[in-house]
Structure formats: structure tokens, C-alpha cells
Amino acid sequence: MGRDSGSDGRPGFRRRDHSVAPWIRTRLRTAPGAAVALALLVMATACLAAAFPRAVERYEDAGLRQAVVDATAPRTSLQVSAPQPGNYIPQSERETALRPESMRKSYERVLNVVERPLAVDSAQSVYGVRNINNLEAAETWLPMPSGLPAQMSLAAQSGLAEHSRPSAGRLPRAKEPVTAGTREVEAAVTTETARRLNIKVGSVIHVPGVQRAPLAVRVTGIVVPRDPEGAYWTTQPLLRTPSLIRPPTQGGEPEAYWLGALLLSPDAAPVLLGTPGEPARYWLLTPDPAALTAHELSRLGSAVASLESGPGLVKVRESTDADTGVSTDLDEVLASYAELRSGVRPLVSVAAFGTGAVAVVVLLMAGRLTADRRRTELALLRARGASLRGLTRRLLTETAVVALPAGALGLAGALLVVPYGRASYAVGAALAVTLLACAALPLRALAAHRVVGVHGAREDLASVRPSRRRTIAELTLLVLASAAVLALRGRGTSGTSDEALDSGTSGDLGSSGDQLVAMAPVLIGVVAALVLVRLYPLPLRWLARPAGRMRGAIGHLSLARAGRTSVSTVLPLLALLTALTTAAFGGSVLAGVADARDRAAVLNLGADARVEAEGALPAALPERVRSAPGVREVTPLSIAYEAKPGAGVESVPLAGVDPEGYARLAGRTGLGAFPADELKASPAGGAAKSGGSGSAKAPLPALASSAVADRYGTHPFSLRLSDGSDVTVRITLVRDLTPALPGTDFLIVDRAGLSTVAARPTTLLVTGDQVSGGALRKAVAAGTGADAGATARADVRLRSEERARYVDSPLQSGAERVYAVAVAAGSGYAVLALLLALVRAAPERAALLARLRTMGLTRSQGRRLLVLEALPQALLATVGGVLTGWAAVRLLAPGIDLTSIALATPGGAPPTGTAALHTDPASLFLPALTVLLLATGIAAGQAWWTGRRGSVRELRAGDSR
Questions:
Q1: What is the value of pTM for the model shown?
Q2: Cα(719)–Cα(647) distance, rounded to whole angstroms?
Q3: Which of 6, 9, 407, 593 is the most buried (most CB within 10 A)?
């Protein structure tokens, strides 16, 4: 064997191969359209993948910050407090401990103890000294509502000049060092305190002293808070607004006294040691909401717990006083947010897994279709000596030249569209998409061309038998899908929410079990697609023989063509069914959220609008409201919340109604429909009499809740109303819900059976298609004699406004938007998969039509042929998508609770009702019908376009198209 000779004639030297780059450039120039399409696909997918984690992080952080802000400073502030220095300490040292220099040093040391990620807003954090026990003021000119003297709280708090501006006079100051024996100090009050307590600049207020004369506090200024809702003033509301205190009394007339605050200079803090008010030092640390992030929620809870009763508290005591304590409700706020997030995040993960699965299938399908289109070219290269490694490397380089810049552009677009969040997750997601796009074509070519061969066997869908490996893979997916469904039905989407804050992982879907649960809809769609692919040849075989006996060749030819479809149809069908299942599941989730909010609003109001007053409404108001724009019907109610059955002390809400109108309202709203005749008072009974112990006439029929019916049975019993009249009722109807009264306790009777006073309407239930809030409030204001800007006598609530109350957190609204975008993106990828499949077969179909036209096929027959050829696959995807989506919703509904995302309420109040997942017909049928129309429409359009063109190119001999 001799050594290889290079082209320059020198033996043993092989010339470096420079053909890779020209070959890639040639390929890109040959098919620029395919390269641009791949670039657009990679760019869009990378953009969506990179934007998703940043969008989730943005709304989660916004929800956490909103939760902290809504909880208000008194709950979220870290209140560090220490008692006055002990009496065993020399007086001078006690006074020094309360001076501003010492308090500021302690404040700075406490700030250093706070651990990240808990950040303190130094602009709103303060320190100072205040008395625990309030001090009686001796001045008689202060208001005394019931003869009790006013009391004062003295506070020497830092930052008064920065958080207020003088309205009159000047800020207090200490002209000389203040001690416990100082006889007079200066103070300021807020405008609200000055107005309510008749304090003016120059007023002197005396408070008791300890072993000394009373302390004189001279008011030198009246200040206006710069930010009345800021933490400086809201953490201790008494500093801004005085309170009217009503101490508990045992019988007799209730008593009350005013409690106000006098704002001393921080230099005057030692004077509090000379009063009986038990002075205490405090440091109020306000967390900075802008620095809080949801991904550090567990560390944030740990930092708060450390300060309350952990190593942080030990350090705080070392920096301040051995008896220092730390209290806050911030940990409860964080736990409430964690519970809400644990209910929202798994639902979003379901949408993310569904859309991600469809995107992956589309990327794989793009690579496979490209490999199929270039099968002859790649087989020829292998036959002419191209190595498998070299061919794979060339295809990888060719794809990377297009995909890498596209992925970078998609990442840049995501960073611009969602400019918030950590970049690491976005870069990782975009990189994963880009690598998958680069590897799809080379891996498919590697699998298809391992053996050199020019001609391959037919891979018709109706003739190829599945391999054992495929059967094992399908059975594995079936087992995984069954496990996911059983797990989701058994423990739901947030089975560990009780330990959300402690572990910090609830809802993160960090474990493989949680990921399997979130992939349940996707796995159902994948299994359904594989089952349908196996069943697809059967109806084609059944229909082939009858179609062959029919007149004309179109039916038989279309079925034969559909049966000879390549097995590569599995990927488009997989993408379609996965997307349709995700769209049906996601649309059902969104529809369930909307329906739950509408239902909760109706449960609270009983109609489209509710007009309610504490007393009786004017007699002419119902007609005036009925004439308002958008109002269709008005149902008057006479509600008595304190109706007392018999001689008992407990009360039952009672509503008097007009049976006919109220029955229509109950039927329309679905809240306990009943026949009106069964509630009407008989002509011989009903009217209540005043002052008696019962009614001499027949008892009124009553509609009651289940709880009331169980309590009083069906025997007649009397009710004492607030106007002193009695009425006897007998429960004849039992319903769980009713429009007039929310809750589980209610009685509904005919108003005609009540006394004149008790029958006067106190509430109006308004129904209409588009009730205008402004017009309704204007009509109520005019009818009640109140100002149009504020209906003082009657409260007007609209269902639309009540519904908006349930979107209380950016966590809910953000999750809904991300969910909707994910469902829309999944549907878009499904359409793209359909288009890719149809475009891949377009040249072959065009050539078929051209050849058949030379045999006499008309244009109309060509359109029917292509439509009938595409119809079996389109029908398979449509029917399979509808059935799979319906099955997914029905199977997973028991484990899906939408209450967290649908019905969260301000302040953590319990929601009205629950939100369950149910099938949404529009989400089932609209995407599926869209797929069917697109498939048949594209086939008809291709036939029409091919018929307008010439047939020369399609009939060229040897053309592989």
C-alpha cells in the first residue's frame, strides 16, 4: 500500500478539504425559502420560550409586592420594641439611652442584622420613644364628649421634618439638654388632631409627672403629612388622626373620650422618663416592596422567622436591649401569597407543558420533513462515498448557520418585549430551542441513512406495521399518562400547598412527580394521537372496496392516495392532537374562571345590580329605576335581618317578595328556582298584626334554606319583626340558594302577608342586559334625594363591579394572560404543523394533477380529488381532537381546583363558592373545526392554483418533485 499523494504531487500529504463552506453556501442559495422559514420558526419559538419565564417572574413579583402593599404597614412592618432602661441604672445613663444619638446607633445596628433578601425601606423606617400608657390631659378646653378628660400619647419620633410640612407655627425643638425633670417641652400636632381637639399654635397641655410637677407641653406647630398613606404615618395611625375611645361599660350610658398624639422633638425623649406613661423605645423597619422577589420567597420567610424568634432576634437584642422583642404579620402575608401562588402556578405549568410539547413536535417535524424532501439527495451522497459522520456534520453546520442567529434574535426580542426578570432562564430556554432546531435534521438523516441505499421500501401508513420498539414506547407513554391522570385526580394540582412557605417549593413543579402531573393533558393527547394512527388504516380499508365499485375514479383514487400517505404523518397528527387537547383544556380553564366569577357575583348580589338601604326606600324608586337605560326588570324586596323566631334570641334573615317577579328572577339566575304559586299567601291568611304573640290567620308559606328547614321543620312558627309585628310562617319550599339573601340562613315569604311597615321595600334587585352604573346611580340618587355624585342613603352595586373584585392580585391577572397566550401559541403551532404537512406534499400533488389532466381530469374533479384526499386526515384530527379534549377535561376535572385563580378576595376573605373545571363547547369545537376548514381550504386552493398554471414543469422526466 502506498502513501496517498496530494494534488501537488508530494506523497504522504493530504490536501485540506475546503468543500464544507462552499457546500453550505450553495445549499442555502439553492433553497433560500426553506432557510428563511426555518429561521422564522426558530426565532418565534425562541422568543416565546425565553419570554415565558420572564413573564411568569414579572407577574409573580408584582403579585408579591401588591400583597405586601395591600396588607398595609401596620401588618408588614418589623416592629422592634424595647422597654425603658431599668431603674437600677443611673438616671443619666437612662436618659442617654433615649437620646437621638444612641437611638440612631441602635437603629443602624438593627439594620445590619436584617438578612437578605429582606430589604428595608430606610426612607419609611423610623425610630423613637413613646409612652405605652396614655396620659390624661388636665385642660378643660379639650373636647370631652361624655365628661371624661382627653388623653394624650407622647411620641419623640425621628424624621418628622422629612415626612411633614408646617401648616402653622414651626417644628418643635429642644433649646437645651432635656432630662426627666424638665418642666416644659415643645410639640407639634397634625392638622387632623388640631381640628378635632381644638388645638392651636401656642396651646399648652399638661400631663401628669412622676415625683415632679405636671409636664407642660407647648404646641409650637401644626403639620401636614406629606404622604398620609405612607408607612411613617400608617404604622402608628394615632400620630396622624386622633381616636374616639369608647371603654367597655356594664350598663348605663356609654362613655367616650378623645385620644390624641403630641409629636415631640427627638431630643426631648428623656422627658418621658418623668411621666407615668411607661416610655418604650421602638424601631419600625418597613420592608421595601420593590426589592421583594417571588423566587426568593422561602429565604424571605426564613429571614422574617429569624428576626422574630431565631438567630436574628439574638443579634437584635445584642444591639439594643436584652428584653427587646420583634413582632410582625409579614410572615402571615407571605404565607397567604404562597398559598395563592401554589394554586395558580400548576395551572400555568399545564399550559406551558402543552405549548412546549407542540413546539417541540413542530421543530422535529420541520427537521423530518426537510430530511424527507432531501431523501434522494442525501442517499446519493451516501452512495457516492460520503461518510455518515461527515454528512451529519454538514447538515448540522448548515442548520446552525440559520438557527443560531435566529435563536439570538428571538432571545433579544424576548428581552425587549419582557424587560423584567432574570436573564439566565431566558437564555437557557432560547438555547434549548436553538439546539433542538439544529439537531432535528441531522439526527433524522442519521437515522434514515445509516445504511447506504438508493431505493427504500414504501412507508405507506396503511401498510407499514409498527415495530416492537414503537409498541413498547407507546405502552410506556400509556402507563405514564395513566399515572399522571390518577395522581392529578387523587391529590390535585397543589397537593403540598399547606407547606408552601416552609419548603418554598409548592407550585414550583420542581419534582418529577409534579412535572408528570402537569403533563397529564399533553400525555393524554400524545396517547390519543398514537392510538388514532394505529386505527387510521382500518376505515380506509373498509371504504376502499365500496369506493372501487362506485362510478368514477375520484373516490377510489382519493382513498388510495390517503392510504399511501407516508408514516411521517404521525408527527403532524401528534402536534394537532396535542395542541387541540391543550386548547380545549386551556379554554375550559379560562371559561371556568370567568363562569366562577360571574357565579360568585350573582351569589353576592342576586341580580345584575342591587340597590340596598338600611331603611325603607321611597315608594316611587322602583319605577324610576325601571326607567333607567339597560334595565329590564326591578324586583322589590323587604328584608329584615333581625327577625326572631318565637321567643328565641337568635335571628333569621327574612325577605318579603312579590312571588311572581321573584320566581322569574330565581329562575333566570339559577338560584333556587321555584313555582310562584307555592309562595303566594292565601286570601285568608298572612297579614301580620302588631303587638300580638302570633297571627290569627293561616300561616304564610315560606321558602327556607336547608339549615333553617332542619332547625324549624315544617310546623308553623311565629317571627317577631323589627317593627314589633308578628307573623306566622310555615316552611313549604327548601332551596340551598336564593337571590335575595346570600348565605346559608334565609326565609322568603310573600310581602302581601307582612304588615304595612314591614312590607316597605328596602332592596331592589335589578336585571338587564347592559345596566349602566352611572345611569342607575343617578336614578337612585334622584329618587332618594341624595346627591348624584354619592348615593348617601342607598348603596348601589353592579355585578360587573362585584366580578372585578375577584381579580385582586397581579398574580391572577398575569397568570390568565400567560395562560391565554400559551393556548394561542399552541393553536398557532398546530396550524403551522398542518401547513408544513400540506406544503411538504404540495409538489407531489401538483405533479399528480398535471399527469391526471393529461388523461382528461377536469379542474373540478381535481379540486374534489385533493379535498377528498386531505379529508380523512383532517377528519381524524378534528374528531380525535374533540374527543381527546373532552376526555382530558372529564378525566382531570376532579383534580383541578380553579378557586385560587378565579375567586381570590381582598384581605384573604373566604371566596363565595368554588370554581370547578367543566367542558367549554367553544374551546372544544372551534379549534377542531378551524383545522378541518384549513386542511380542506388549502387543498382546494392548491387545486385551483395548479389548474391556472401550466403543466410543463410538473411533467418533466426525472423530476423528483
A1: 0.76
A2: 9
A3: 407
